[in-house]
Amino acid sequence: MSVAWIGSQPVPLMDAIQKAAKLLASSHCPVFSLDADVHGTRSTIALAERLGGAFDHVYGETLAREVALFTDNGGMFTTPGEARRRSSLIVLVGEIPAPHHDMLLAWSNTQPDLGDGGQRAWFHIGGAAPASRATRQFNRQLKTVPITGGDLPLSAVLAGLRARLQGRQVTSPLANVDRLGAALNKSQFPVFVFSSTSGEAAGLAMLQGLIADLNRKGRASSVFLPADDDAWGTALTSLWMTGFPPRTGFANSLPSYDPVRWDTQRMVRDKEADLHVWVSARGEMPPKGRKIKLISLSRAEAPTANATVTIAVGKAGRDHDGVAYSSRIGTFQALAATERSSLPSVSSIVQQLARALPGRQDLPC
Amino acid sequence: MLIRLAGGDVIDPVNGETGQRDIWIRDGLLIDRPEGETPDETHDVSGCIVMAGAIDIHSHIGGGNVNTARLLLPEHHAAHLPRPANTPLSNAGWSTFQTGCLYAQMGFTTVVEPAMAPSAALHTHLELADIPIIDKATLAILGNDDFTLSLLRDAKSSSMLDDYVAWIIGSSRALGVKVINAGAAASFKENVRSFSFDDMVPEYGVSSRNIVKSLQASVTRLGIPHPLHVHANNLGIAGSADTAAATIAATEGVPMHLAHLQFYGYGIEGKRKFSSEAARLAELVNGNPDVTIDIGQVMFGQTVTISSDVMRQFTAIGNANPKKTVIIDGDGNSSGGIVPYRYRQDYYGSLQWAVGLELFLLITDPWRVFFTTDHPNGAPFTAYPELFELLMSSDARDAKSTELNPSALELTTLASVRREYTFEEIAIMTRAAPARLLGLKDRGHLGPGAIADVAVYRRSKDIAKMFREAALVFKNGELVVKNGKVTHYRWGKALRLNPPPDKAMIKRMKDYHDERYGLSLDWFTFPDTAIARDDPFAEVPCNS
């Protein structure tokens, strides 16, 4: 099976490495869209730094919204493990991404063994926008009590709820708000579960304001569930390596974080970059119709469309061992290969690319 | 490779008095002068001060809370200037790469991250592995987790607690144990808002004192070289000196290390009910040989406070600058709070600054007082050179005092203390004593057999400049810094203990995680290969 292609032609791996290195060395502005485990991320960021490029996650748009929750506001958080063990009241906020449904359903089969130890109750705060079929089914399984406000969007429902819980009048009635108020009074450690897909930034800031209100006299917290665990892992890795989250560039060797300027897919679209390095250990394809040169490191059995160079890579936890973020435990987890294969890791390919560049230096990671 | 450092003024309190002599390095180790051999490399260091590489016992350099602070504050990087150049990722803001470079430039070769949540040990070690040049180590946090509290509540045997502590130390690859406001994080989840040494944790009926004493005893029984590292209750509040005094009195003949004592040096005198109790605490430390302390010196400017003392951090939200914070009620010992803060030269900042210096200067034994700013809580570690100057020059202290709030300084003894640290005392406080405190016999001195961690400083009237830019730094015999610039990258190790795990405890841990979290223990443990560096750890033996 071929693992490397120049254009659509299968080539030996080293030929593809040499070709890709030439493209990298001659680029004035390479940009990296990446989706890899911790070690693939580390190597890719180190290569971007060496080349004076910029990097972002493949799911950069969603990730940038998640990062902004912290850079703009901060908040009060707990871990899924603590919520499972301690909270007798779980309030879901907006759409919870499907990958997290199993974890939450598992909570519904347990009772807290810490704190008040009460029977766990479930609520769901939703807006006027119709919920997805998966969310509707999920809410039915959990038997959540809906908190809604007719035509109000989620952010307005949260604002109204916050006002009501503070004893203020609101003009738009909210369904089941008194039931939630009673449940909040009863529970010693209510937890609001949300994701960046739950709503707009203003609404999520309002949610944190509501939690802050509850903490004036009692306790409450929130569980943040990233839309994509691997993307969140990339954000954390980027933070310790560069001091900044993704959408960071190394122009003039100094890193700078700018979620608009270093949006790599925008840069590709607007032709601000002259080389796009697409790294997807999940095997996703780059957006079509882009006009700049493309190097693709992807878990694929065929060359990526319009790529000058394609190199097949493995996925951590499947083809090889690795480390990835897990929202089940709220931190990094060592992954053992489940279907060990000969596909190289992203990290090993990026290291080979670095050694093929002029200077032939190893990357620091 | 045989290296000779020729003609330097060697300050090595462990191995003799200060004097001019050569230092010889072969294959990463210090050796006696080899007879009849010609060095491969000679560095003329005549006129320079030569010391062992410095060791920082308490600096928050990596892990979940540190990284969350980066996430909260991408604008914070200026606090960590200046930046080295020409090394991979060393320009990269407030990063792991920059941390290693900046420490090395000052002659530091080993740094301890003192607050690792055991459940997030992999994250911490991944970060530490990306800190170049220096060796690192961690202290595992215990004392707020359900398992420890349940053992104490149920009066389980001390051997079971020992087995648990040993398992935590081994599985998290830690060098010691730290307790942070023992019981407070667990109590905060039950809506307790203040927590003192003899207060009880709800649900468990266990006092903070009981937690501290039990872990202190366990650490001693297990032969863990570093005494229990204690972040006491009531940090930062007026009157906290009473808490520190009670904790010091609780040593009862067993070693204990009290972290960042400056933050407990406050009384309730004066118009603002916030005064210095440093002289009283210094006297207590001087009179109790079982106690060691580090300072947590405050220096002025912007920083961010990062602490697993979530109760304390929650109460500090109102003082956040800028106005954004993260508070985490984590499971077990993974709670924490991130609160940005600017130390101003106002009454409160001036008093805190003076309290730290009073403790440094009034505690007489440099083997029992350790040089820290509790990075970044009192100040970023990049402020160390200025702090060395304040300790070694009473004129520098006087000059700075003129800029500060006089009514605050009047409530301190600082102006009357004329002590100036000598180079020998600096070498004890930052080299010899930390190595002894941590059980690191292979460093902190310049005797034969020690690893060749050597810092060479060019003498200067400008003490801060001298310590900011080491003339030469060797790490394991490799020249890594020249004229204050990093010239060579290498990867240090994380120093760890490795007590053998008890099989019954492993089974208990498996059952516990399965029952309480619905997850197998594999989710929380990791192989060394997960770090993806060659030999990322180095073992330090426990005391026999």
Which SSEs are present, and which pair or pack?
The complex is a heterodimer of chains A (365) and B (544).
Chain A: E1 4-6, E2 9-10, H1 13-26, E3 30-35, H2 38-51, E4 54-57, H3 60-72, E5 74-78, H4 80-86, E6 89-93, H5 101-108, E7 121-125, H6 133-142, E8 145-147, H7 154-165, H8 177-186, E9 191-194, H9 201-217, E10 221-224, H10 229-242, E11 248-249, E12 256-257, H11 264-269, E13 275-280, E14 293-298, E15 309-312, E16 322-326, E17 331-335, H12 346-356
Parallel strand pairs in A: 3-4, 3-13, 6-7, 6-9, 7-8, 9-10, 13-14, 14-15
Antiparallel strand pairs in A: 1-2, 1-15, 4-11, 11-12, 16-17
Helix pairs in contact in A: 1-12, 2-10, 2-12, 7-9
Chain B: E1 2-10, E2 19-26, E3 29-31, E4 41-44, E5 48-52, E6 54-56, H1 64-72, H2 96-105, E7 108-116, H3 121-129, E8 135-142, H4 146-153, H5 158-172, E9 176-180, H6 184-188, E10 200-201, E11 206-207, H7 208-221, E12 228-231, H8 240-249, E13 256-258, E14 266-267, E15 275-276, H9 278-286, E16 291-294, E17 301-307, H10 310-315, E18 325-329, E19 336-343, H11 347-362, E20 369-370, H12 384-392, H13 394-401, H14 406-410, H15 423-438, E21 454-458, H16 463-468, E22 472-475, E23 478-482, E24 485-486, E25 494-496, H17 503-517, E26 537-539
Parallel strand pairs in B: 1-4, 1-5, 6-7, 7-8, 8-9, 8-25, 9-12, 12-13, 13-16, 16-20, 25-26
Antiparallel strand pairs in B: 1-2, 2-3, 5-21, 10-11, 14-15, 17-19, 18-19, 21-22, 22-23, 23-24
